[in-house]
Amino acid sequence: MEKIIIEGGKALKGTVRISGAKNAALPIIASCMLTGGRHRLHNIPRLRDIKTMKSIMSKLGVSFREDHGILEVNSDNLTSCETPYDLVKTMRASILLLGPLLARYGKARISLPGGCAIGARPVNFHLKALADMGVDMSLEQGYINASVDRLTGANIFFDLPTVTGTENIMMAAVTAHGKTVLKNAAKEPEILDLANMLRKMGADIKGDGTDTIIIHGTKRLNPAEHSVIPDRIEAGTFMIASAMTGGDIHIEGCRPEHLSAAIKKLRSTGTFVEVNGNGLHVKGTDIIESSDIKTMPFPGFPTDLQAQFMALMCIAKGWSMIREGIFENRFIHVSELRRMGAEIEINGNQALIKGRDRLLPAPVMATDLRASASLILAGLVAEGGRTEVHRIYHLDRGYEAIEKKFRNLGAAIWREKE
Ligand code: EPZ
């Protein structure tokens, strides 16, 4: 186990380059199972979750090769359709293998992903949509046993716009017999990135990015080459870090149009944010104005930036209200922020924050991916000592070498063995 140590109080300065998006790379890597042949993927981030996805798919017979930063994926010889529980329990996104396996082989035995720190995270919308497409499913020993002769296009309506649910059904539908219409589909940029990859493979998809996606099944798909979009949540995390530390940073290789809600909100706190093509210039101010947020599906304020924005509000002037509109338990970072002196009251899915002029260094514990990011941000401003963030394997799931990137911006931050 490792921990990250931070000596806070330094204003971030300089330039940071954003890595490829974890939540685009995961479904795109899974989509390589839809057809044999050699796919070539660029800008795949070096993350724990990507490693987990590759090891699960290797157990299914998929082969991977790194070629000068390009990930080659070949699923000519699938040897199994069963994902092992011990790997699935570490990453819920393995549910994304269900659609491709059923599309390619008509069979899948996937361990039902359990809940996680931020909520129960059911997959009922995925399963109901697949049943509508003709899949027979049973639950046995915690595994979903699914089989279908050939997937049939269907009219699907999601009760909530589920990101991985939309992605799973898109992958199931591209070679299904007939037309599939997805209503109340998720509109996140990662959905469009997957649709672009599938179109390069020969799929007939329209409407991605809107709440209605229409897919006409095609007989054959071919391997494709694709570069994954940059990670909007990593970019948003660095924007908030600059705002908190009174910094002046340039964020390169991001897609500002994926961050409109976060940019608008940060500007409302008095932070200077300038959009320059595929870069952002973000400067903090002495006084951070408080601002309320409610997390919503895209294009609303992203739930994956909620914990980071809360860290900012902990040192803002006055009171702010944060409402978590997506997950039922995404305030676990609050108790750890309180250990650093934050004044936060929780009432159901609402958190009321009373800004203070400083946070105090302390040993804290990461509990989930984005909560750990908020503790790093709090540590960057906690002066007069060291903040130790423990269990940072949560962080490594979704951020590529985050302490190196912050150190290059002038932060006193390093990693140590526990
Ligand atoms: C994706 O999770 C992301 N993960 C999450 O990022 C992100 O927080 C989330 O979307 C929301 O934007 C990946 O893309 C790998 P949902 P997902 O299905 O797809 C309920 C991170 O930090 N729901 O859009 O699992 C669900 O409980 C991670 O990178 C059902 O009830 O989220 C939630 O309340 C964390 N039944 C809401 O819908 C279902 O079958 C939205 O969840 C599916 C979802």
Description:
This protein folds into two domains: 206 residues, Enolpyruvate transferase domain (UDP-n-acetylglucosamine1-carboxyvinyl-transferase, Chain, Alpha-beta prism), CATH 3.65.10.10; 206 residues, Enolpyruvate transferase domain (UDP-n-acetylglucosamine1-carboxyvinyl-transferase, Chain, Alpha-beta prism), CATH 3.65.10.10. The protein is of the alpha/beta class. The mean pLDDT is 96. It is elongated and about 65 Å long. The site of ligand EPZ has 24 residues, from helix 1, helix 5, helix 6 and helix 12.
Defining key terms:
418 residues; alpha/beta; UDP-n-acetylglucosamine1-carboxyvinyl-transferase, Chain; 2 domains; four-stranded mixed sheet; 24 strands; 26% strand; binds ligand EPZ
Can you count the helices? 14
Count of discrete domains? 2
* Relevant CATH superfamily of the largest domain: Enolpyruvate transferase domain
The CATH topology of the largest domain corresponds to: UDP-n-acetylglucosamine1-carboxyvinyl-transferase, Chain
Rg over alpha carbons: 21 Å
Q: How far from one another are the termini?
A: 6 Å
| Ligand names | ligand EPZ
Proportion in β-strands: 25-35%
> What is the 3D form?
elongated
Question: Mean pLDDT, as a whole number?
Answer: 96
Low-confidence stretches: none
Major beta-sheet overview? 4 strands, mixed
In CATH, what is the class of the largest domain?
Alpha Beta
